[in-house]
Design brief:
four-stranded mixed beta sheet, about 120 residues, alpha/beta
Length: about 120
């Protein structure tokens, strides 16, 4: 049996409607890196996220050059998302992929009604 953890609580709506979306998160949670090369299920598209703030630095979406300039000028600890991912992997190691099966057990519907991803059972 499996479990769905960390389901969306409306953040996709808030992210899409905001002038600046900021996510705050620890770089690692329970010895697991938060930033990954690939996630299993998307519930908030990355293009709607402007800033990720962690205890190891701040990543700014490259599309937001205005924020990148302001944060750099303010001498904030700006890092690329790749630098933060590498730091997390140095701390925790690179995560092994979780095998997933073919059976779809849920769908992810975006705020406009489009299906942006599915949830698959473990293999």
């Amino acid at each position: 049996a499996g479990a769905i953890m960390g389901g969306s609580g409306g953040h996709s709506d808030a992210a899409a409607g905001a002038k600046m979306t900021i996510i705050t998160a620890n770089l690692t949670r329970s010895r697991i890196a938060v930033i990954k090369d690939r996630v299993r299920t998307i519930c908030t598209p990355g293009e709607t996220v402007d800033v990720l703030v962690t205890e190891w630095g701040i990543a700014v979406n490259p599309r937001r050059t205005d924020l990148l300039e302001r944060f750099t000028k303010a001498k904030l600890s700006v890092r690329s998302i790749e630098e933060l991912r590498e730091k997390a992997e140095r701390l925790c190691g690179k995560a092994r992929p979780i095998p997933e099966g073919e059976r779809i057990v849920g769908i992810v519907e975006y705020r406009d009604g489009t299906i942006i991803d599915v949830v698959r059972a473990k293999a």
